[in-house]
């Protein structure tokens, strides 16, 4: 069933806003004040290694999801020093303090994209102003697998709240993907997490996984029993092409270690970043997943729902039949589900590559479940539920924790 009304749909970034084409790679979260914050790369050049600004807009409005979007807040400017490639915003909210955080990378901008640097900024005023950036790159000085390129997310991290060990509740966890230089064979794609137990003041490395399974851009969810699930898109590397697949791993110790990853096949779609959130609804634990609905092209933004932790899917809803690029999801404090995505046929510059605009839409959960008509259950695709025994140490072979880094709050 396709929703043709889209009554509460709003455009966040128009085509060519501030002479940037396109707006691409998204992050989305809600503040404790109920503000929706959307982030993206405002690309000066179309390529992954070209100069990009990193920008933010704040959305406010009524309970029906018809948000009003403020002006661009520039997190970092790419049109300086000969062009800087700021990339992969990944946002998180500390619900204990109201602090907002955005982690992101600085691509070296070379054709080989050999190295990157990682930064974080903090906001204690609902995203209206931000601290100076703090560099976190040294967390990866002793990265395994000879990884030299480290990107967060994209999308959003999570704050733990259901851990059997209550001391872990409140921990902020952010996912990363890694590789060697583009010229390397293999590139050794893999994933990891970093975490903070003090609201983002200091950070430590957690477990890593996915080399040999080509784990790339990913999302995290915390299940009802405290299991953390890392869900990643596949890649093409080392003789394995699993670009249409999702690969999952799970942690039962708050992200310190991850089990050996598994490839999940029931939600196959064209290679693309995808959104994932978990929600409790009338005694059921639901996973909600946003993704392109096609195998061959980035078209038909679709939301799929599972009520058995990803073992099967109760149905899907086509949000939009146009071209659908990256997306992210947010579960709002009022119970509504918001989706942000790159929409439309390629923009008019840069040889017609990239989404024409970025849009946001919300659903009440009951309405979304109704739209996701039951289509027959399929094998597991997203989850990696807690199991007894067989759990890896820090990876499947991970190194000891790296250094702890300290960040500054806004002045």
Tell me about this structure.
The chain has a single domain (10-406), classed as Neuraminidase (6 Propeller). Helices cover 2% and strands 43% of the residues. The protein contains one helix and 29 strands. A seven-stranded antiparallel sheet has the order 1-28-27-26-25-24-23. Strands 11, 13, 14, 15, 16 and 29 form a six-stranded antiparallel sheet that branches. A hairpin with a 6-residue loop joins β24 and β25 (299-306). The radius of gyration is 19 Å and the shape is globular.
Low-pLDDT segments, ≥5 res: 1-5, 375-401
The arrangement of helices and strands along the chain is EEEEEEEEEEEEEEEEEEEEEEEEEEEEHE
Average pLDDT confidence is 89
Lateral arrangement of strands in the main beta sheet: 1-28-27-26-25-24-23
Number of domains: 1
- Count of helical stretches: 1
Q: If you consult CATH, what is the topology? A: Neuraminidase
How would a crystallographer describe the biggest sheet?
A: 7 strands, antiparallel
Instruction: Please identify, by name, the CATH architecture.
Output: 6 Propeller
β-sheet strand percentage: 35-45%
Task: Summarize, please.
By secondary structure, the chain is mainly beta. The chain is 2% helix and 43% strand.
């Amino acid at each position: 069933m396709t929703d043709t009304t889209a009554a509460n749909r709003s455009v966040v970034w128009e085509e060519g806003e501030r002479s940037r084409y396109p707006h691409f790679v998204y992050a989305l979260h809600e503040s404790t004040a109920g503000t929706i914050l959307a982030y993206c790369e405002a690309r000066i050049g179309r390529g992954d290694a070209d100069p990009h600004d990193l920008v933010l807009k704040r959305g406010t409005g009524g309970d029906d999801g018809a948000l009003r979007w403020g002006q661009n807040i520039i997190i970092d400017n790419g049109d300086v020093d000969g062009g800087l490639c700021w990339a992969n915003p990944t946002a998180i909210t500390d619900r204990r303090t109201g602090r907002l955080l955005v982690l992101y990378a600085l691509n070296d901008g070379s054709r080989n994209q050999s190295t990157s640097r990682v930064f974080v900024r903090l906001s204690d005023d609902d995203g209206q102003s931000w601290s100076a950036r703090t560099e976190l790159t040294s967390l990866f000085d002793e990265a395994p697998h000879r990884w030299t390129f480290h990107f967060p997310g994209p999308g959003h991290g999570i704050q733990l709240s259901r851990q059997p060990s209550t001391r872990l509740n409140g921990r902020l966890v952010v996912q990363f993907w890694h590789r060697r230089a583009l010229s390397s064979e293999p590139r050794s794609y893999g994933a990891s997490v970093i975490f903070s137990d003090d609201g983002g003041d200091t950070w430590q490395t957690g477990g890593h996984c996915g080399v040999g399974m080509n784990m790339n851009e990913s999302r995290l969810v915390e299940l009802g029993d405290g299991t953390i699930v890392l869900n990643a898109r596949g890649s093409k590397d080392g003789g394995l092409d699993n670009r249409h697949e999702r690969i999952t791993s799970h942690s039962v110790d708050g992200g310190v270690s991850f089990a050996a990853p598994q490839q999940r096949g029931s939600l196959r779609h064209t290679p693309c970043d995808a959104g994932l959130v978990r929600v409790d609804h009338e005694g059921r634990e639901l996973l909600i997943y946003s993704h392109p609905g096609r195998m061959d092209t980035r078209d038909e933004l679709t939301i799929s729902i599972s009520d058995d932790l990803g073992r099967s899917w109760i149905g899907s809803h086509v949000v939009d039949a146009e071209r659908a690029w990256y997306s992210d999801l947010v579960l709002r404090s009022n119970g509504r589900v918001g989706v942000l995505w790159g929409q439309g046929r390629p923009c008019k510059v840069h040889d017609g590559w990239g989404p024409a605009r970025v849009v946001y839409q919300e659903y009440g959960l009951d309405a979304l479940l109704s739209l996701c008509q039951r289509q027959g259950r399929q094998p597991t695709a997203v989850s990696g539920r807690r199991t007894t025994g067989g759990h890896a140490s820090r990876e499947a072979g991970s190194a000891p924790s790296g250094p702890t880094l300290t960040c500054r709050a806004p002045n």
